[in-house]
Amino acid sequence: MGTHVIKMPDIGEGIAEVELSQWHVKVGDLVVEDQVLADVMTDKAMVDIPSPVHGKVIALGGQPGEVMAVGSVLISIEVEGAGNLKESAAPAPVAAQEPPVAPKVEAAVESKPAAAAAPRSAPVCQGPMVAREADERPLASPAVRKHALDLGIQLRLVRGTGPAGRVLHEDLEAYLAQGQSNASAPATAAYAQRHDEEQIQVIGMRRKIAQRMQDATQRAAHFSYVEEIDVTAIEELRSHLNEKHGANRGKLTLLPFLVRALVVALRDFPQMNARYDDEAQVITRLGAVHVGVATQSDVGLMVPVVRHAEARSLWDSAAEISRLANAARTGKASRDELSGSTITLTSLGALGGIVSTPVLNLPEVAIVGVNKIVERPMVVKGQVVIRKMMNLSSSFDHRVVDGMDAALFIQAIRGLLEQPATLFVE
Question: Phi and psi of 236, rounded to 5°?
Fold first, then answer.
């Protein structure tokens, strides 16, 4: 028997250290070649570290949340063969297939809601139990843990079907379904007191998000501006285009129209399509419009970038938004796809509420927030009519952007969306 030592691989792009987010194995586990051993977090993305060998885990090189240098010992695996010590870097890391850490228009585009959750105190039926020690923490993302808590399910009793036995949303649903068919299964009292607690370590993507949000609010002088927009006409245009071309070109959401409105409006307001280096005291205005589209995923908020939006048609933008949103949600977005934006668009789709106060994506100076569309009675030419209305809740860096310019910019977007033909008049 021999020992194969796997070292932290070079993720690339000059990265000298990464954060160990989660182990998928423990000491004593048998592993096979290409099995995911751990998730690590770079500045922008979560990546999987696979095993290059078959064998038995005999030592782990770090704890979740620990920052490890490239080349440091990640894991030791006992393998069959010569007794001498073998060392290697792990194979090239790949994007995590099912990211392990915490939270999710279409990107925040259209968040895919979890299965409807019962109130936290509602009774549930328990399915067949899985034998785990009382102190054994099952593998599951924070989103799954919250879902289980909402359903009143003890996660350690649920059989996980994901990689390394990870519990998925589907496992919770299967657990409930099995329990409902078991008439003898005990039910939790509807109004029973609860005294359980759960501590969740802030690591990986959740830590990066926390750091970036704190940095943004401490360094930039945020101010928000909210404008109401009548989107009846553009929704009619969107419906018409989908009916006529949806089958062969793909369905359009509102987002490609918003991207187009940004592109056109920025021609008159180039100061919004900029980055501010507050240390060098330099504002860089860019001709290229690289739109970051805030996207909620199981590992947290990501901002994949639609590059050169100024050169894209509606359907080209729609296809790229969809591709990037899927890559972000599945943990497959590359570092390049998650960096380089010049202005950000954020939306929670149908969950968008009435007003929001988006946090800037530094070093950008503007972020446009989209709220939900609602039908309301409005007075048009002296008549009360039903119109589809939507708010834009946008934030700006007051160190760079004046309040009047911000208002005029958002009103320009409003004019373009309310008269959609102007989006395409050159």
Answer: -65, -40
Question: Of the listed 268, 277, 336, 402, which one is catalytic?
Answer: 402
Distance, CA of 273 to CA of 279 (rounded, Å): 19
User: Higher model confidence: residue 176 or residue 340?
Assistant: 340
pLDDT in tens, 200-247: 878 877 888 888 899 999 999 999 999 999 999 999 999 999 999 999
Cα gap 179→111, rounded to integer Å: 29
Closest CA relative to residue 22, chosen from 2, 41, 45, 6? 41
- Residues whose CB falls within 8 Å of the CB of residue 12, separated by 6 or more in sequence, listed in order: 335
Q: Which of 54, 169, 245, 398 is catalytic?
A: 398
Contact 101, 204 (CB under 8 A): yes
Phi, psi of 14 (to 5 degrees): 75, 15
Mapping DSSP onto H, E and C, the string for 270-330 reads HHHCEEEECCCCEEEECCCCCEEECEEECCEEECCEECCHHHCCHHHHHHHHHHHHHHHHC
| CA–centroid distance for 264 within its chain | 27
- Token duo for residue 127: 């399915």
Residue 409 has pLDDT above 70, yes or no: yes
Contact 36, 48 (CB under 8 A): yes
Is the CA virtual torsion 295, 297, 301, 304 positive or negative? Answer: negative
Nearest partner of 187 among 123, 122, 118, 127, judged by Cα = 123
CA distance to 60, 62, 70, 299, per residue, from 38 (Å): 10, 11, 14, 15
Could you give the CA distance from residue 46 to residue 41 in angstroms, rounded to a whole number? Answer: 5
Single out the residue of 418, 396, 421 nearest to residue 407, CA to CA.
396
Long-range contacts of 309-312 (CB under 8 A, 24+ apart): 309/259, 309/260, 309/262, 309/263, 310/263, 312/259
Query: Is 402 an annotated catalytic residue?
Result: yes
Condensed to tens digits (0 to 9), the pLDDT of residues 39-71 reads 888 766 677 888 988 999 999 988 888 888 888
User: CA-to-CA distance for 264 and 118, rounded, in angstroms?
Assistant: 45
**CB burial of residue 17 (10 Å; 0-12, 13-18, 19+):** middle
User: What pLDDT sits at residue 140?
Assistant: 80
Confidence of residue 181 (pLDDT cuts 50, 70, 90): low
Mean pLDDT for the stretch of residues 18-22:
85
Q: Among 237, 148, 164, which Cα is nearest to 196's?
A: 148
- 24 an active-site residue? no
